[in-house]
Amino acid sequence: MGGGSVRVSLLQIDVDPGEAVDARRERVASLVRGQAGSDLVVLPELWPVGAFAADLFQPEAEPLRGPTAEVMSAAALDAGVWLHAGSIVERAPDGALYNTSLLFSPDGELRATYRKIHRFGFDRGEAVLMSAGDRIVTGDVQGVTVGLATCYDLRFPEQFRLLVDAGATVLLVPAGWPARRREHWTLLARARAIESQAYVLACGTAGTHAGVELAGHSVVVDPWGAVLAEAGPGEEVLTADLDPGLVAKTRADFPVLRDRVLGLPVPDSTG
């Protein structure tokens, strides 16, 4: 993956509340196996249960190496792909719940996990039911450093600056983004790509979770902010080819990152 073109496939899953979680796991695993020609496959946020189905978080929570990890590990191995398996409701050993992303290698090994830092809902849903992650996470995907973020994280550019500082050139953002804010989704994905001078692979869900219509419209954005591919509102496999060398070229041709000014004092608001 470190040299030449990189083929990525984003699987925009329709989360139908009438479909059993176990059945959805097997269906999604079959879709992953169908991407054997890709280098990297990305799934959405909380696709086993639905990002807004808060009533399912407790009953469907699972350990890090639980049923979803088992099925996704096997699918990555069978397809011979790197797999960002979206996120699950993780039940930690102390009983706390996290919105946790899983990254598998083509040999089926779990290579990285990321607990979502910014929880959405303000005083409801995920914000009160889930615990917050507390660390920036990157992974090495065959010589390419990928940065992990999830959905609401997209609204916090400081997290992406830290991922860039950690060497990320490809940013993976699974999401369950609502349709009523779809324009924010596309705009923020492009903004994070432009300011980071990195690829952004933003993979959303389709369907309706707990009465909330999801946006779909997964998108692949290049380091200049150009949209290379965009899905529609329904279930879809979105495929694009990335040029890993474009990140270094962009950063060399337009070296904006070196002009960052850090550590400015906070103004005194007392007057």
TrEMBL record:
<dbReference type="InterPro" id="IPR001110">
    <property type="entry name" value="UPF0012_CS"/>
</dbReference>
<dbReference type="GO" id="GO:0016787">
    <property type="term" value="F:hydrolase activity"/>
</dbReference>
<protein>
    <submittedName>
        <fullName>Predicted amidohydrolase</fullName>
    </submittedName>
</protein>
<comment type="similarity">
    <text>Belongs to the carbon-nitrogen hydrolase superfamily. NIT1/NIT2 family.</text>
</comment>
<feature type="domain" description="CN hydrolase">
    <location>
        <begin position="6"/>
        <end position="244"/>
    </location>
</feature>
<dbReference type="InterPro" id="IPR003010">
    <property type="entry name" value="C-N_Hydrolase"/>
</dbReference>
<dbReference type="InterPro" id="IPR036526">
    <property type="entry name" value="C-N_Hydrolase_sf"/>
</dbReference>
<keyword id="KW-0378">Hydrolase</keyword>
<dbReference type="Pfam" id="PF00795">
    <property type="entry name" value="CN_hydrolase"/>
</dbReference>
